[in-house]
Design brief:
By secondary structure, the chain is of the alpha+beta class. Helices cover about 50% and strands about 10% of the residues. The chain is built from 15 helices and 14 strands. α3 crosses α10 and α9 packs across α11. The chain is globular, with a radius of gyration of 20 Å. The structure holds protoporphyrin IX containing FE.
Amino acid sequence: MRDDFDPLAPETFDSPHEDYRRLRKECPVAHSSAWGGFWAYMKHADVCAAASDSSTYITSKQNVIPKVAFTGRRPPLHLDPPEHTPYRRALAPLLTEKKVARLEPVIASLCDELLEKMIAKGGGDLCAEYSAHVPIVTFSHWMNLPADQIAELAETGRTYNIAVQSNDMETTKQSSLKLYDMARALLKARKEAPLDPALDATTALLEARYEGEPLPEDLIVGTIRQVLVVGIIAPTVTFGAVGVHLARDRALQTKLREQPDLIPEAIEEFLRLYTPYRGFARTATEDVCKYGRTIKAGEPIALVYASANRDEEVFEAPDEFRLGRENMKDSLAFGRGVHSCVGAPLARLQMKVALERLLAKTKGFSLAGEPVQTRFPEIGALKAPLAFE
Ligand code: HEM
C-alpha cells in the first residue's frame, strides 16, 4: 500500500499543518506504513463521526499510535463501554469546574514561583521550566498527596514527561515504572485510611462498583496512571505552543496582557489552533469504506484531532487566531463521545492561570531560538525558548 505521509519525517513547529492541509484536500483517509501501518482520519467530519461511534471504533485494542506497551491496561481510555464507564463515572464528579476551582491558588503560586526563576535569568524554555511543571503539581494536589510525595511525583512526572516527548525510551520506562509504584502506594494508603470520595479520586475509585463488584485493584492503579499520562503531556505541549504563538504575535500578547478577561476565550481558540493530539487511535470492528478506500476490520486508525480542528470546511481561515468564533462548540480539542476528555475543566483552569500569570509577570517576550516540535502521538512544542524583556 502506498504511503500518503511520513509521520517520522523531520518537522518544524509549523510544517505538520501544511502537510495536513494537503492531506485533507487530496487524501482525507491517509495511510502510512510507519509503526506497522496505520490509517489517519484528517477531516473534521470523519474524526467527529468515528469518535462518536464507540461500537464501530473501539479503543480497547489500540488507543494510541505508535502503540507503546510497557505496561498493562489503563482505564478509562483503554476500555470500551460498558467496562469503561465505572472508571469514568468515578473520576468525572471530581473534575467539574466547581470541584477543580479549589486548585486555582495552588496553580497561581506555583506559576509565580517558576516565573520568578525564569525572570531572574531573562527567560528560558517555557516547556521545561514552566509548562511541564504546572500539570504535575496540579495533579498531585488534585490527588490530595502529602507534601513530600508532591515533590517526588513532581520530579518523576516531569522526567517522564520530557523523556516521552524526547523519545528517550529507557528513561520513559524507568520513570513509568516508578509512577506505577507511586500509584500502588497511594492505593494502599487510601485503603488503610480512606478520604471523602467526593474529594478524592482514589477513594472514589475504591468505592465504585461494576456489576455489584469493586473495581479490580490493578485497574484502579492503571486509572491513576492513565490520568497522569493524559493529564500532563497535553497541557505542557499546548502551553508551549501558546508561548510560541504569542512570542510571534506581539499585538495579541499586548491585547491579552491589557484585557485579561479575554484569556478564557483565547484559551479555547489556542486549544483549537494547537490541539495537542494527532495519534489517539481506534480500531475498526468491521470493514469501513471511505473515499473509495477500504479500512479492514482490526486495522488501527489515528483520529487526527489537530488536523480536524483546522478543517477549512468547518473553521473559516482555520490557521488564523480569531477571538469569538461562533462555532467554537465544533472544536474537537477535547475529543467527542464516550472518551471525550473528562479532565477538560482542569485543563482549562491550568491553561488560564498559567497564561494569566505569564502575561501579568512579564512586560513582553519574544522567541530566543527555534521552537522544537514534539512528536506523535502529540503535536505542539517540546521546546519554546523565550527571551523576557
Ligand atoms: C490541554 C489539555 C488537554 C487536552 C487537549 C486533552 C484532550 C483529550 C482528548 C482529545 C481526549 C480523548 C481521547 C480519545 O478520543 O481517544 C482526552 C481523554 C482523556 N483526558 Fe484529556 N486532555 C487534556 C488534559 C487532561 C487533564 C488535565 C486530565 C486529567 C485530569 C485529562 C484526563 C483525560 C482522561 C482520563 C481521558 C480519557 C477519558 C475516557 O476514556 O473516558 N486530560 N483528553
